[in-house]
Design brief:
Layout (H helix, E strand, L loop, with lengths): L1 H12 L5 H17 L17 E4 L2 E4 L1 H10 L5 E12 L5 E11 L5 E12 L2 E11 L7
Parallel strand pairs: 1-6
Antiparallel strand pairs: 1-2, 3-4, 4-5, 5-6
């Protein structure tokens, strides 16, 4: 029990006290880069070559190259993410969990609600996106 308690204390010490500031700054940077066609390709630098996982509308992919293939295959000409809420939590390994709720506006289509979750993993002196889960908020209810 004492060993478990000391392990728990060590683990607790790795919580990042700046998780909220880092999470919100990351969110702003990510969507500003995504929404600008001139900077969208630079998103690849936020993902890890092997250790990043994405789930996009239930489709799974691994690694920065595959994730960027998916992002670049999307068919819109113009896109804007309108953020409603960003919730951040520190993780016990020093990472940060980010939940984003918002609306997505593509081309001349009506806005769609979306949710996206990120897990930022510390790597060197910065973070990379270890997990990225995206879903449009669609409720298909039988009439």
């Amino acid at each position: 029990l004492i060993l478990l308690d000391s392990l728990l204390q060590e683990t607790t010490m790795s919580l990042n006290p700046n998780y909220e500031q880092i999470g919100k700054a990351f969110t702003d940077q990510y969507y500003n880069m995504f929404d600008n066609p001139a900077t969208r390709a630079q998103l690849q630098a936020l993902y890890n070559a092997e250790q990043s996982l994405m789930s996009f509308e239930g489709q799974q992919m691994q690694g920065a190259a595959k994730i960027m293939e998916k992002i670049q295959s999307l068919t819109f000409q113009k896109i804007a993410h309108l953020i409603t809420a960003v919730d951040c939590q520190p993780m016990f390994d020093g990472g940060i969990l980010i939940n984003v709720l918002g609306q997505l506006k593509t081309d001349d289509d009506p806005p769609q609600s979306f949710m996206q979750n990120f897990v930022l993993k510390p790597g060197g002196d910065s973070f990379f996106i270890q997990h990225d889960v995206f879903r449009l908020v669609l409720h298909n209810v039988a009439a």
